[in-house]
Amino acid sequence: MMIYMLLKFLFKYFVGNFIFVFKQKHLLIILLSLEFFFLSIFFFFVLMLNFIDYNLYMLMVFLVFSVCEGALGLSILISMIRSHGNDYFQSFNLL
Q1: Do residues 38 and 13 touch, judged by C-beta distance below 8 A?
Q2: Which CATH topology does 1-91 take?
Q3: Domain ranges of the chain
Q4: Contacts of 17 (CB under 8 A, 6+ apart)
Q5: Contacts 24+ apart (CB under 8 A), 47-56
Q6: Does pLDDT of 58 surpass 50?
Q7: In terms of pLDDT, which residue wins out, 91 or 70?
Q8: pTM of the predicted model, to two decimals?
Q9: What pLDDT is recorded for position 93?
Q10: Which residues pair with 88 in a beta bridge?
C-alpha cells in the first residue's frame, strides 16, 4: 500500500513538472501546474509524517506558503490581463 502511494505521488509530481516545463504559453496554465505540484508535495508530506507518527504543524506552514504563492500568482495574472488584455507570454514584452 505504501509503495502504491509513493508511485502515485511520483506520478503527480512528474506530471506537474512536465506541464510546468513544456506548457509555457499561458500564465494561468503555469499557475495551475504549480498548484498541482504543491498539492502533490503536500500529500507526500502527509503520507510521510503520518508514517513516522510526527505532528502535522509543519504542514500548516507549508499550506500557508503555497496559498501565498497562489495569491501572488493570481495578482500577477490579473495585472497582466489588465495591462495587456490576455495572458499570452508572446504579447508580454519584457523590455
Answers
A1: no
A2: Helix Hairpins (1.10.287)
A3: 1-91
A4: 37
A5: 47/2, 47/5, 47/6, 47/9, 51/2
A6: yes
A7: 70
A8: 0.73
A9: 58
A10: 26
Q: Which three cell numbers stand for residue 84?
A: 495587456
Measured in degrees and rounded to the nearest 5, phi and psi for residue 31 equal -65, -40
The three state secondary structure string of the chain is CHHHHHHHHHHHHHHHHHHHHHCCCEHHHHHHHHHHHHHHHHHHHHHHHHHCCCCCHHHHHHHHHHHHHHHHHHHHHHHHHHHHCCCECCCCCCC
Grid coordinates representing 67 are 496559498
pLDDT at residue 95 in the model: 43
Cell numbers given for 41: 508535495
Query: What is d(CA 19, CA 29) in angstroms, rounded to the nearest whole number?
Result: 8
CB contact at 8 A, 72 and 19 = no
pLDDT digits (tens, 9 = 90+) for 6-45: 788 788 888 878 887 887 777 788 888 888 888 888 888 8
- Per-residue cell: 50: 503520518
